[in-house]
Structure prediction request, 438 residues.
Amino acid sequence: MAAAPGAGPAPGVEPGPGSALLRFATIGSVDDGKSTLIGRLLHDTKQLFEDQLEALSSASRRHGSDGVDLSFVTDGLRAEREQGITIDVAYRYASTPRRKFVIADCPGHVQYTRNMATGASTADLAVVVVDATAGLREQTRRHVCIAALLGVRHLVVAANKMDLVGWEQGACEAVDGEIRALAAVLGVETVVTVPVSALFGDNVAEASANAPWYDGPTVLGALEAAPAGAWALGGGGGARLPVQWVVRHPGGGRSYAGMVSGGSLRPGDAVVVLPGGQRSRLTSVETFDGPVDEASPSLSVTVRLDDELDVSRGDLIAPVDRAPDVVRELEATVCWFADAPLRAGDRFRLKHTTRMTPAQVASVDGRLDLGAMAFAPAEELGTNDIGTARLVVGTPLATDPYRANRVTGSFVVIDERTNATVAAGMVGRPALGSAPPG
Ligand SMILES: Nc1nc2c(ncn2[C@@H]2O[C@H](COP(=O)(O)OP(=O)(O)OP(=O)(O)O)[C@@H](O)[C@H]2O)c(=O)[nH]1
Ligand SMILES: [Mg+2]
Prediction:
């Protein structure tokens, strides 16, 4: 769920290297207009082909809409169109002359909060869509909290359906005020609020004359100007290579394949293999295209070591001088998705990077009160609660705090019987109550 290797968008949506790529997710409560906004954005920036537009208008007619229902651009599943809601995350790729985007259109319905967390886990920015006629709902607050806990530091807020409130400035300001109060305690760095009508296209890609009191950017303008999205796999700590595969070479010798995060790897680096603690040196670093002098975060690589060590899938290779902690007990923040409550003593499987290990809940400590935006003492977590807990794991894990590395700092909790993902977890506890965003 959190940014484990392979958990990113579906293949085929990645732009070429070197682009100022921004990954963003749409979040917010059900029916507030997330899919319509993305459909509108793709339509107005000419990302849709003629045949897609024709298919859209005939599908829209079948579902009783006179014009084109733009939510159908991302709502592709039959159940989604029939119910008029998003169920699964839809990934779309878009580009403008200024920037390339990977978009995760997330569902708003509370039942699909888990899918929203998947979509947000690889995002650098969230577009929070709020129905300005109704203001922030509890689900909007939940989504903003989850996105922030998952490392999203920048918000573009679409105060949507402004056509339904006569473009009244106060409605937009109310949304902006509520989001800023929330963002301030979550460590969000930037908030840009835009009054829009996703349905009619005001201030989405094109500036609108309907809000003369507004002189800020359109949603697209705010996305093009947003800070670069290197945080997803960078983090600025030491390099981390969770071993995904061990490759045995015919002539003897082995190499280790995985995706780099946190920092760069270079041939000659002194490394340690965790949790075992064996030390060696990288003799080569290769990508699909051959040997490289340096492998930066998000590259998939194979490396060779100077020594014959017993390295297996699930081990982690890191620089000796900037190694992560090896722990048997995790202080964690979890978003709990199962129907049955989470309590001390519960047993699960925990997936951390490329390793699966048994885990047991030592204690549930707190639950986030979405109204007060503070953790209150708690002994159990209910469905869609966000809380803090201590977990004991069967195999020692090489972890970083989530804020230092989104890969080694995250895990998912899996039900042993049903194999369902029941929680997204982050190593460490959030410091609620930081400086207000700019
Ligand atoms: N009047 C008006 N209606 C809108 C606007 N944006 C969206 N809608 C309508 O609101 C309804 C819900 O839109 P969706 O885009 O499906 O909402 P969503 O947020 O994607 O919903 P979920 O994905 O199910 O959470 C649709 O009937 C839209 O036509 C708007 O700016 N003005
Ligand atoms: Mg939707």
In short: Confidence is low (pLDDT under 50) at residues 1-19. The pocket of magnesium ion (ligand 2) is lined by residues 34-35, 71, 75, 86, 105 (CB under 6 Å). The chain is about 15% helix and 35% strand. The first strand starts at residue 21 and ends at 27.
